[in-house]
Amino acid sequence: MTKINDIEQLFKAHYPRMYRLAVALLHDDDLARDIFHDVFLSLLDGSFDISITEGYLLNAVRNRCLNHIRDCEIHHRIANLYFIDSNEYETENFPDECTMARIHSLIKNDISSQARRVMELRFSDNLPFSRIASVMGISETAVYRHLSHALAIIRRKLNENG
């Protein structure tokens, strides 16, 4: 048998349990399916051992799910810290029309087109990072980096001009 046939047999034999485990940990069908498929893609990319067991596959799915949860928690903590730090100003009158015009100008002139698209999808369309990543064909980490870089530029430029 070939490597692909062996992996296909593993896929068919262990799909239900691996998929249920991923859904139980992530509470998201699409994300669970992505994690599950990533495990099998790694088998295709790496050296394949014919003695791969169900336990190995379940551990691989569990570890990838836990890594994803950890990464999401880190992103949320950073976002919360930013929110706490940015509450130093009075929120009733902020941002005023002049400030909003400056922000729009900065987005148009000082931010890359890809970061601009990420900001549009995030703030105008209210899409989550995972959906933005799939729409743009980039990773969630890249989405986060584009967004944080763009926000850093906007903050710096606004602080420079008072």
Task: Outline the structure in words.
The chain has 162 residues and is mainly α. It contains 7 helices and no strands. It has helices at 3-26, 29-45, 54-85, 97-110, 113-124, 129-136, 140-160. α1 (3-26) packs across α3 (54-85) and α4 packs across α7. The radius of gyration is 21 Å and the shape is elongated. The model has no long low-confidence stretch (mean pLDDT 81).
Structural class: mainly alpha
Biggest beta sheet summary? none
- Helix fraction bin: over 70%
Percent of residues in beta strands:
under 5%
Rg: 21 Å
Global outline: elongated
Count of individual helical segments: 7
The end-to-end span amounts to 69 Å
Question: Can you write the helix and strand succession as a string?
Answer: HHHHHHH
Mean pLDDT: 81
Question: Low-confidence runs (pLDDT<50, min 5 residues)?
Answer: none
Let me know the number of strands: 0
Annotation keywords:
mainly alpha, 79% helix
Summarize the structure.
It is built from seven helices and no strands. It has helices spanning 3-26, 29-45, 54-85, 97-110, 113-124, 129-136, 140-160.
